[in-house]
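job 3f2a | input accepted
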Amino acid sequence: MATEAPIDMVKAEAFAGEVLGYLNGASLAFMVAIGHETELFDRMADLRPSTSEEIATVAGLNERYVREWLGAMVTGRVVDYDAAAKKYKLPPEHAASLTRAAVTGNMAGFATFFPEFGKVSQQIVHCFKNGGGVPYSEYDRFQTLMRNDSAQVFDATLIDVTLPLVPGLVEKLQAGIEVADVGCGAGHAINLMATAFPNSRFVGYDFSEDGIALARAEAKAMGLTNASFEVRDAAKLDISSRFDLITAFDAVHDQAHPDKMLKCIYDALKPGADFLCVDIAASSNLEENIENPMAPMLYTISTMHCMTVSLAYGGVGLGTVWGEQKALLMLEEAGFGNIRVEHVEGDIFNNYYIARRE
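job 3f2a | predicted structure (358 res):
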């Protein structure tokens, strides 16, 4: 009778230390989210070493809560602490990733999604046992969080970096063309393009009534007359040869029926027109994602949102990490030709797919 090999206690203890690291990391993610929403990081970035009272006063917050939050930030090696003076300082190298003026991308804003996912954790457990999914309606702040997060990226890169990836596109937009954004969410990309290119006409489609309401409100506040928005299922557009350009930003992988969405996009384009699809940079093969530093987070986001919302509507549950190989195959199956994958310097999160209706 075979006997089990003895446990390697050195390996077991080392892994236990890693698990403790996961728990500390998860805890800090919640605290980083709070630091972002209260603007503590932004206020501290402009301060010399300060006491908790001074930080709370500048931020307009309760000192006792600020002091406890600072305890997490100091022990998490996010904030420096002078014990003798009882003063705290956010190093500029850390502020570079944590403030709204972050030069390396505001990762603190991204942390705000995790408390939102925590609200549906018991529903996700139910899905593990019984199948099905959690619908968009259960994520009450998701559209707002997505708008806040994506707006930073769009503001920084959409007009000057992303659109020029398509040869000749900027000149066409300046002259005046018909553009749609499918899965537009809160519509910020459409509103930015409509502002930059007043001769072109833009329409955004999204399944979410909340997202479309935010999009319309922003367009009205910006005084735009060349941007409109419709609540519409991306898999049921039923539009033929209308658009000179269609975009989709981080929208394909969480659709109930992404294959139907891509075919609808193909049909809605004029012959010779382009589809610009920005989506998660990853491999479709698990083994090729093991060394991807973002992979655990991506699979978690997929489980907690992108995959489950697709399954909630009877969809295929493609998931966040559908990957480049699957994306190229699905674009080809939808009818697209001349497909290119581009990358933008500094953006390690996304692939930029440019496909043409021949």
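job 3f2a | The CA atoms of residues 66 and 129 lie 40 Å apart.
job 3f2a | closed
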